[in-house]
Structure formats: structure tokens, C-alpha cells
Specification:
Blueprint (H helix, E strand, L loop, with lengths): L1 H38 L18 H24 L1 H89 L4
Helix pairs in contact: 1-3, 2-3
């Protein structure tokens, strides 16, 4: 009877040790795979989706052409009025054209500023999306590594617990 009990205890200890060993080995493989994934992780490049954006100059060009036509018409009218009329009115005609050109330039400047802000905002948004995704992927790999390490500790704990239980059972076994 003592031999059968001893054999049963030894068999249970062997099964427990094998199960703990398998758990530890599985955890080591899992941790090693996670570490390899983390080491080989390649960060993504942030793409600039706003790179091709541009402003339209058609409206400004049309305004300047209109101002040039108006200026030509006004100069013709002034020339019809004589030399005195030309001298008196040419400054006003030039000032009108200059005002149109300045307004067009200010409009272009405003459009460029708005476009720059849009491009910057798009870059910031894209960076945030890519960075967030990458942080989640890295965190997942770190969690996998930690789970593998925990499985190793659990497996070793199972082996140690089995050994201790076996020693205790053998010590309490009737002789």
C-alpha cells in the first residue's frame, strides 16, 4: 500500500512538474515573441495629406485685368479731354488701379495664411492619429511580454509547489 501511495504521489508530482514546466516554457516563448516584435517594430511615417493644397489666383487675376481695362478706358477718356484733363486725372486713375492691386495682394496673403493654418492643422491631426495607433500597438506588445513573464513565474511556482507538496506528502506517508 505504501508503494502504491508513493507511486501515486510521485506520478502526481511528475504531472504537476510537467504542467508547470510547459506553462513556463509557453510563457517564455510568448515573452520572447513579444520582445522580438517590439525590437522589430517600425514606426510609420506621417504623410502630409495637405501637401498638394494651393490657393486659387483666378479671382485676383480677373480683378487686376478688370482694373487694367478700366484704367485704359479712363486714360482714353482723359486723353479725349485734352492735356489738362490728362494731367489732372492720371493720378486718380493710377490710384484706383493701385488700390485694386493692393486689395488683391491682401486677399492672396489672407488665403496663404489660411492655407498654411490648414496644412499645419492637418499635419498635427495626422501625427496624433499615427502616434496614437503606434502607442496602442506598442502597449499591446508590452502587455504580451508581461503576460509571458507572468506565465513563466506561474509555471515555476507550479513546479515549486508540486515539489513542496510531494516532499510533504512523502514525509507524512506511513512507513
Amino acid at each position: 500500500m505504501a508503494v502504491a501511495t508513493g507511486t501515486a504521489i510521485a506520478l502526481a508530482a511528475g504531472v504537476g512538474a510537467v504542467a508547470g514546466g510547459a506553462q513556463a516554457i509557453g510563457g517564455a516563448v510568448r515573452a520572447k515573441r513579444a520582445r522580438k516584435d517590439m525590437d522589430n517594430y517600425q514606426r510609420q511615417e506621417v504623410t502630409d495629406l495637405a501637401q498638394g493644397l494651393r490657393i486659387s489666383t483666378l479671382g485676383g487675376e480677373t480683378q487686376i485685368e478688370g482694373a487694367e481695362q478700366t484704367q485704359a478706358t479712363q486714360v482714353d477718356a482723359l486723353q479725349a479731354g485734352g492735356a489738362r484733363t490728362v494731367l489732372g486725372g492720371i493720378q486718380a486713375v493710377g490710384a484706383q488701379k493701385l488700390a485694386v492691386e493692393q486689395a488683391v495682394a491682401a486677399g492672396f496673403d489672407q488665403k496663404m495664411a489660411t492655407l498654411s493654418q490648414q496644412k499645419y492643422g492637418e499635419k498635427v491631426r495626422q501625427f496624433g492619429v499615427v502616434e496614437g495607433r503606434q502607442n496602442q500597438e506598442i502597449a499591446g506588445m508590452a502587455n504580451e511580454l508581461q503576460a509571458g513573464r507572468a506565465a513563466i513565474q506561474q509555471g515555476l511556482g507550479t513546479i515549486a509547489g508540486t515539489a513542496m507538496s510531494t516532499v510533504g506528502s512523502l514525509a507524512n506517508m506511513p512507513k
